[in-house]
Amino acid sequence: MQTEVIQTGKIMGKRGISSAVLKNIAVVTMLIDHIGAVIVIRLMIQKGLYGAMVDQEAYIAWVGQNRGMYGTYMAMRIIGRFAFPIYCFLLAEGFQRTHNVKRYLGRMLLFALISEVPFDLAFSGRLWNMQYQNVFFTLFIGLMVIAGLRLVDQRLAGPETWRKLAGVGLYAVIIVAGSALALALKTDYSFKGILAITVLYLFRSHRKAQIWAGVIIFLLMDGMEMIAALSFLLIWFYNGARGRQNKYFFYFFYPAHLLVLWLICVVMGIAGIPAI
Question: What is the spatial distance between Cα 73 and Cα 67, in angstroms, rounded to a whole number?
Fold first, then answer.
C-alpha cells in the first residue's frame, strides 16, 4: 500500500505530477501557442484577416472561408493558455527551494535580455521592439516581488502590532511597485502576471487555497486568458517531487524556439508581417 505524507499542504509521494512533468507540459503548450501566434497568425493576415476586420459581416465571411486555418489558430491559442499559470506556480515553488536567490534573479534577468531579440523578431518582425517585452521579464519582476515579501517577513518577524502593520504596508508597496514596473515595461501578462505569481506565493502553505486563489486571479483576466484557470486542474495533482529534469532546459529553449519560429517565417516569406 502506497503511503503519502502531507507536508505544507502538498501531497508528497509517488502519485501525482512532478515539477518536471508540469514543466514539460508548460513547454509543449507554450510551443503550440507560439506556433499559432507567430506562424499561423501571419498566414491569416496574409490571407486578408485585417482587411476583413473592418466590419462584422466581412469578418464572419472571412472566418467562414478560412475556417480550417482559423480553427487551428484558436485551438493552438487555447492550448497555450495552460503554460503561464504553470510557470508562475513553478516559480513560486522554485523560489522556496533555491539556495541562492541572487543567482536565481540573475539567471532570470540574463535570459530576459537574451530572449528579447528572438522574441521581437518572432512577434513583430523587428530586431528591437519596446512595445512588448518577453515573459522572462514578467517572471523576473515577479521573483523580485516575492523575494521582497520574504525579506519583509524575515526583518519584521515578531508578535508586536507595529511589526504586523509595517509588514502589511511594505507588502503593499512591494506588490504595487512590481506591478507598476511590469506595466511600464509592457511585459507579457503585465501587472496581472505579477499578481498571479504573488498570490501563488502567499498561499504556498495551503494547497486548496492556493489553487482557488490562482483560479480566481485568471478568471478575472480578460478574453482568452480566463481559460488559463483550467491549468490548475493539473497543478492540483502536483506531488512536490522534482522528477527528472534539466535545470537549464527551459532557459535555453525559450529564446531558441522563438528564433527557430522566426526563421521558419523567413523561409516561408512571411517574416515581414508583424504578428502583434
Answer: 10
> Which tens digit of pLDDT belongs to each residue from 143-199?
999 999 999 999 888 778 778 889 899 999 999 999 999 999 999 999 999 999 999
Spatial CB neighbours of 228, under 8 Å, sequence gap ≥ 6: 81, 82, 84, 85, 218, 221
> Within the chain, what is the greatest distance between any pair of CA atoms?
68
In 3D space, the residue among 135, 97, 100, 132 whose CA is nearest the CA of residue 115 turns out to be 135
| Residue 172: closest CA among 207, 142, 145 | 145
Which CA distances in Å does 230 have to 129, 170, 186, 197?
32, 32, 25, 16
In angstroms, the CA 109 to CA 158 distance is 33
pLDDT, tens digit, 9 for 90 and up, residues 62-98: 999 999 999 999 999 999 999 999 999 999 999 998 8
| Model pLDDT, residue 38 | 97
Per residue in 115-143, pLDDT (tens digit) is 999 999 999 999 988 889 999 999 999 99
- What CA–CA distances, in Å, run from 227 to 44, 185, 231? 23, 25, 8
Q: How far apart are CA 203 and CA 239, in angstroms?
A: 16
Query: b/e string for 147-185 if b means 16 or more Cβ within 10 A?
Result: bbbeebeeebeeeeeeeeeebeebbeebbeebbebbeeb
Find, among 111, 80, 124, the residue nearest to 261 by Cα: 124
Q: pTM for this structure?
A: 0.90
Averaged over 208-218, what is the pLDDT?
95
Q: How far from chain centre, in Å, is Cα 229? A: 12
Cβ neighbour number for residue 55 with a 10 Å cutoff: 9
